[in-house]
Structure formats: C-alpha cells, structure tokens
Specification:
This protein is mainly alpha-helical and about 290 residues long. The chain is built from ten helices and four strands, in the order αααααααββββααα. The protein has a four-stranded mixed sheet. Strand 3 and strand 4 form a beta hairpin. Helix 5 packs parallel to helix 10 and helix 7 packs antiparallel against helix 8. The protein is elongated, with a radius of gyration of 23 Å.
C-alpha cells in the first residue's frame, strides 16, 4: 500500500482522533472552520432582515432570507457524510443499514441545497426588480428609515454622513426603502449573479462526486470515467475559484474565505475517492 492508502486504513480502523497525522489534523481543522462559518452566515443573514425585509420574515420568504445559512448547513452535513463514506466507513457498512441511513440524510441535504439555489435565484430576481427613485436627493431621505446599497446583504441607513456618496440617477429596490446609484446597483447585481452561478456549479460538482461514490462502492468506477470526470471537475473548480476571487475583490472576505475552504474540503473528498479506488484495485490484484 502507498502512504495514502495506509492513511485510509488507519482512519477506517482506528478511533477517529487516534494517531492522526498533521495532514489529517489539517483536514479536520478545515471541516471545523466550515462549521464555524455557518454561524457567521446566520449572523449575516439575520443582520440584513430589518432593511431588506421590512415586512418581516415568514414561511414564504424564509428560504430567501436565510438562503446562505440553509445552503451552508446542508453542505456541512453533506461534507461530513462524504467523509464517512469515502474515508472512514468500510464498504460492508456502506452496503448495510448505515449506508442507507446516510443516503437518506444526503437526499434531504440535496433537497435543501436545490431549494437554497432557488433562494439565490429568487434573491437575484428581487434585487434586479428596480423602479426609479421618487426622491433623487438622497440627503432628503436621511433619518426617514431609508437605506442605501453598500453590497449584497449590506444596506446601511442613509445619514447626513453617507448620503452624498450616491450619484444620480437613483433607483429603488421595489417594495423596499433601499436606493442605490448605477455603481452600487451594478455591484449588487453582479454579486447576486455570482451567488447563483456558484450554487449551480456546486450542485453539478456534488452530483458527479455522488455518482463516483456509488460506482466505487459497487466496484464499477472505471479509469476512463475517472479521467473524464477529472476534466469536468477541473472546469467546475475553476468556475468556483473565479467566484471566490471575485468575492475577494468586490464582495466580502467572509464569502471569499468560505469559498476557499470549501474548495480545499472537496479536494480532500476527491483524494479520498481516488485512494479508495486505488485501494480496491490493489486488493483485487492481490
């Protein structure tokens, strides 16, 4: 066995935290940071409610309001299940009731992930629903409950200190008291679009990984399929990396940092699948 196959053997047959290498500690630290990011996204989504949703949160807009939080929670659970399937549990256990239970939980996660994608798309439609602002002098709206667009989910109240930052013509997000100029609205639209693109790319990527897991479990994962999927995943990772870089430039550091951690985390899952496949091939040849 190679060194990585020894690692797979160790993590499958020893207690989770016994004898972990520096690499293994690094991997689980990444997973822990992603779990902490879920808490940060809940705070961010909640903070945007007073300005973006003045009518309050209800069952009809809950998925839109907390799309990032719901998406992240589903992905954290999904990531941990992938780790169990590809690096911890034996093939025998995955073919037993434990495997069926994990598959059921994953199905629920996939449902939430697709629903969150709908939430991102709904948010994109809401921020692109614009009307000309009735009041083109932003300073006249200071102290009257109006807000300005700073970024996606960031709508500070208009004050005498920031009202002059807007340059006409001003537009208003329909059914809200949020206004912005061409520059801030363009930024808002770009960020919302990248959210949709990023969520869609992740759905395609995880569907491909899921297919690889199923094929590997039943020893039908061929070298040809692995080679083809490698190029597809490379293209998807480049899209996701591009989204992360854009968030670094025009978004928030939290969005960039979260995207970077997810890229690293799923590279680990890719390595797990490759090691699992190689281990099976060596055992069949022995």
């Amino acid at each position: 066995m190679t060194e990585r196959l020894n690692y797979i053997y160790l993590i499958k047959h020893k207690p989770l935290l016994a004898g972990l290498s520096a690499f293994q500690w690094f991997k689980y630290t990444i997973y822990a940071l992603l779990t902490y990011n879920l808490y940060l996204f809940i705070l961010e989504d909640t903070g945007a409610i007073p300005e973006a949703y003045p009518q309050g949160v209800n069952l009809n807009n809950l998925i839109e309001v907390y799309s990032a939080s719901i998406d992240t929670a589903s992905w954290v659970v999904l990531l941990l299940i992938f780790e169990l399937e590809t690096a911890i549990l034996s093939d025998e256990r995955l073919k037993s009731w434990q495997g069926y239970l994990l598959s059921s939980v994953k199905a629920v996660c996939y449902g939430f992930i697709c629903y969150a994608f709908y939430g991102y798309f709904s948010k994109y439609l809401s921020v692109t629903d614009l009307i000309p602002a009735a009041q083109q002098n932003a300073c006249a709206l200071s102290g009257q409950g109006w807000s300005l667009i700073h970024s996606l989910n960031e709508y500070p109240a208009i004050t005498a200190d920031n009202c002059n930052s807007l340059e006409g013509p001003l537009q208003q997000l329909n059914n809200t008291q949020i206004i912005g100029d061409n520059q801030s609205i363009t930024l808002l639209h770009n960020l919302a679009f990248v959210d949709v693109l990023n969520a869609g790319a992740w759905i395609v990527l995880v569907a491909l990984l899921q297919l690889e897991v199923v094929l590997q479990l039943y020893q039908k994962l061929s070298e040809g399929f692995l080679k083809s999927s490698k190029y597809i995943k490379l293209a998807l990772y480049l899209v996701l990396l591009g989204a992360a870089v854009y968030w670094w430039i025009d978004g928030s550091f939290l969005d960039f940092w979260d995207a970077f951690l997810w890229l690293v985390a799923f590279i680990f899952i890719d390595l797990n699948i490759l090691d699992w496949h190689e281990e099976t091939q060596e055992q069949a040849a022995a």
